[in-house]
Amino acid sequence: MNEKALQRLEYGKIKEALAEYAVSYLGKRQIAELLPITAMSVVRAKLDETAEAKSLLQHGASVPIPSLEGMENILELLGTGYVFSEKDFMHMNQFLTSCAQLMRYMAAKSGAAPHISSYAASMYTMDALKSEIERCIRHGQIADSASKELMKVRKRLAVFEERLKSKLDSLMSRHRSILQEHVLSTRNGRYVLPVKKEHRKLVKGTVLDESASGQTVYIEPAEVMTIQFELTGLKAEEAREELKVLSDLTALAESCDQQLLTNVETVGTYDFIFAKAKYALAIGGSNVELSDQGIIDLREAKHPLLNRPMVPLNFVIGRRYKSLIITGPNTGGKTLTLKTIGLLTVMAQSGLLVPVREGSLLSVFNHLAVDIGDGQSIEHALSTFSAHIRNVNEMLQFADRSTLILIDEMASGTDPGEGVGLSVAILEELHRRGSTVVATTHFTEIKNFADMTPGFENARMEFDADRLQPLYRLRIGEAGQSYAFLIALKLGLPAGLIERSREITARGLPESLPQGTQAAGPGPEPDEASTADKDDPQEETTPVPAPLPPSEKEPEDAAQPVPEEAPRSFQLGDCVYIAYLGRTGIVFETEDARGNVGVMIQNQKFKINQKRLKLHIENKELYPDNYDFDIVFETKENRKKRKLMGRKHAPGVTIETQSEE
């Protein structure tokens, strides 16, 4: 999978946390090398293994996973001519003992954990090697019984050591008065008497050393020289016999090298599996269903790296729609939602249980593309927009039906108009390729595109408008808003300025300020109320009344059913509220046979089912009686043509209208 995508999702931090639960070098190595798997059957097997291990731990089982202490060094030196030490064989014996315990344990758990118990069935007891080590090595030392020759040598050594001890005791007693201290010392492995310097000639023997002060000389008495010489020879013979024993044991271990390797690797695998199980318990991980159709159905999902309580995420994609556009206020949880979806996907494909409720489903993807964060680099001075385009270009290299694409803040970093157009084109191309796409945006045009296009769906992050706080809950099927006007109003921006902002947002920017009006006040549009009239003096110059701004109530409040004394259909000029877009619009075409109403939103025309509309302000409160709605809904050019065609035959003149989808 794409390494950059994994980095952006902080996959490495998951592996760091997981490694804390491994106890062996091989378990930690497997975690370091861990990557998402793209074969669905393998992913299924790995998840089931982790689930079995988790179940064993939950039921209080103490799994006897052997220690691999010393085994890495042993495997590296096998067959190199190196002779293993007593310590090496102690590690080897402990390992074989633990392997036998693990094999018995897993055999007993074959019913409860059939997948992971099968690994132990491939392990070896190596009874002959274990028995020989125990016969030859005891308490970290080579036993006398390791060989007949060694036993003979050690018996002779015992005799001579006893004889030497008796001689030394006699000499210590005889020369007590001339000794510097009544303690035997050794020099170069030979026993000596610490004699006062002035009495050195009273003891027959060889001076082997002298104290730093020069007051004491260390003499090897002549009476024990022969005995000590014999002892030196016997100890050399003992060392040769011990080396022979260790060499024979090493040869036996080398004959079992493949069996040792299999056991070590199996133990490493068990360490890895149970590390995943322990991590699953720590994060509340559960097993999931799998799909290869791009379907994701997360229930009460949480981000595993979040160090604070998180509102559980419920998320669905891939059945009715494969592209989801998420909107909502800043810091409302949009980016966290993307990261949660992506991270849980790659975790599951790594055989890790994820923090979701049982019954959740994730898809196995071959490719993953993530554009989260501005991706700017100081060194290369890349702009936010350039970084986005670079990331999108990489996506397009491999995007297909088995690709999950996560894009944060579409159309950001450049001119909104061009950015929106480019974003829509990118979304169309990714949808054409069949990719599963989750994107966030603030732009209404992208939300409208998602609402009108099959295979796309809107979603929003919920927001508490009263407390100006995000609720971090995802609601699929509704478009959100940034709440900029409401937040600005509650933070003290003048209400008149907010009203003018709403008007500009609803109707678009004016070409110029009307004469005789204040800069912040509403007025007739120049192209409709003045410019057009100059071309045709006979045209009435009735000014266009600006629609009243939406009320300061929350969208939720505005969307509440308004008590009506009698059913009323929507009329031309009615101001309606579209809850799922969080926008108001003006009715330009009444309801057709299918129940669709023509609504103009920000100078764009849409067909929206009447069930999704709520009356906000009646037309009679916005426009005078018999008002010519063509001034609002028709272009200046088409109005001129219609006037001309109304007065006389105009060959070659045609009126073009924009189609609404």
Keywords:
4 domains, 43% helix, six-stranded mixed beta sheet, alpha/beta, Rossmann fold, 661 residues, MutS, DNA mismatch repair protein, Chain A, domain 3, 21 strands
Strand content: 15-25%
Q: Shape from CA axes?
A: elongated
- Overall residue-averaged pLDDT value: 84
In the CATH hierarchy, what is the superfamily of the largest domain? P-loop containing nucleotide triphosphate hydrolases
Q: State the separation between the terminal residues, measured CA to CA.
A: 39 Å
Number of helices: 21
Oligomer: single chain
Which sequence of strands runs across the widest sheet?
12-13-14-10-15-16
Which parts are unreliable, with pLDDT below 50 for 5 consecutive residues or more? 374-382, 513-548, 550-565
Question: Structural class per helix/strand content?
Answer: alpha/beta
Helix content: 40-55%
Task: From the alpha carbons, calculate the radius of gyration and give it in angstroms.
Answer: 43 Å
Task: Describe what you observe in this structure.
The chain has 661 residues and is α/β, with parallel strands linked by helices. The chain contains 21 helices and 21 strands. It has 4 domains: 16-126 and 256-283, MutS, DNA mismatch repair protein, Chain A, domain 3; 146-227; 289-482, P-loop containing nucleotide triphosphate hydrolases (Rossmann fold), CATH 3.40.50.300; 495-647, SH3 type barrels.
Compact summary:
Residues 507-566 are annotated as: Disordered. This protein is an alpha/beta fold. Helices cover 43% and strands 16% of the residues.
